[in-house]
Fold these 2 entries.
Entry 1:
Amino acid sequence: MVQGLFLAVEGIDGSGKSGIVGQLAAHLRRQGREVVTTREPGGTHEGEALRALLLSGADDAWDPMAELLLMTAARVQHVRRVIAPALARGAAVVSDRFVGSTLAYQGTGRGLSEPFIRQLHAQAVGDLWPDLTLILDLDAATGLARSRRRLGDAALDEGRFESLDLAFHERIRAAFLAQAARDPARHTVIDASGRPDQVCALALAALDRLTG
């Protein structure tokens, strides 16, 4: 049986994650792989319902600990019902965000304990981590402006984190870079400030290094 492959695409809001997820999936399908694309929070009916609650409304709608637990609840459903079954049958899973975002947003951003988040992750989903996490790195002000524009153009009520100030998003960027520095074997940082084709080429090259 073909071994399953788990990829996550991370980065600040507005860094272009969803586009890269699609490009990675298309590249893997051209190689004959079954590919499952998904996102967090979301990925299941229950996860999408939690997404609507977590990404809309005022920033103070949720206590940080409640926010963490809801994100984790969505991930339990996601892993048990989507990711783990796909990996078990040898598929490639490409997820727009995973636990790296929890460490960045609820850990560094909200100030919750990173050891606690890691322990919760281990207990909740068996300590599942991606084989490779691509971090799309972009200036926080640029990413925030892009994300706010996208939400406005699409009339999406998912701007709860975009309502936070630039300093918050700068902390998130720094947190992702710190994750990559601590575990370079499982992370690749990609400059997301270039043209879309340039960013895509860097992402596909990172994938090919992993699978080649």
Entry 2:
Amino acid sequence: MNFSNTLIYWYLQNSRELPWRKTKNPYYIWLSEIMLQQTRVAQGLSYYLKFTSTFPTVFDLAKADESTVLKMWQGLGYYSRARNLHFTAKQIANEFNGEFPSTFKEIIKLKGIGDYTASAIASICFDEPTAVVDGNVYRVLSRYFGIDTPINSSAGIKEFKKLAQTLIDESQPGTFNQAIMDFGAIQCKPKKPLCMFCPFTDSCVALQKNLIETLPVKEKKIKVRNRYFNFLVIKTKDNKTILSERKGKGIWQGLYQFPLIESDKNINKNELISSDEFIALFPDETTISLFNKKEIVHKLSHQHLYTQFWIVETEYSSEAKINWSDIEKYPVPVLIANFLKEYQPKKY
């Protein structure tokens, strides 16, 4: 049996029951693939069901406000995925009359869709033999063939894509692609892979040469940047607060946050209230207290946010226009969402 036949045979016996496996509708396949980037299936499944229930067609997603889409995406992270999803839904609805492009070359032109997602949609929905390469595929191929080229290098990306393309079963490319992804997720796992029950036991180079723990190889990660956030949770006498939308191209674009003072280190109360930003925001008397006694560390891919939430009570603020009772309507970063779950504002 060759590689693809063995893999597909394994898949037919071990595939996961997932809702997007029951359709070839490119809208649903697209949704699932975008959601599962950087996200485990167990976490992404509930979001997929929520999205397909609220937005059953691409027209429904296109008509939604971006704020609504971001609110539904809250907790999945990497919010540029949601913004791109919404942008592309509007393009497909308005420019293509709801019809998804049917070839890899056309699909990859859509915003937010890269080689992997375009390959998945083209193969699963339109039977185009173009191979997917994601983290699971890198792991399976690097171990099986004993390849130590770094998977996050330009050379590695090209090498693994070319190899995957030579292996794909052209008669059933969608099944092959789903098989190799499932194999990496279930069988050839990052840690403690099920080598004892693997159909490739006799031919896997990593197993024969004891390289399971060292493959795949990744180049050294980018240096992580530390940032220090001080959120000012305002509460006025008439039970209002301040939330503002984050602009620009940085983290959390389009999400809402409390006024933020960023410092170059962890600061105490006296340092906070003597800062120019605090004085400009609160010229009048306030009562301030630290909500979290221990600094919260929120880890993103290339930065760690050391965060403090300061409760600021003041009689009046011209900027405070949002009722506390309405605060849950706004899309916020998971860092702030977690704070809101714990904080119960008392009446002034």
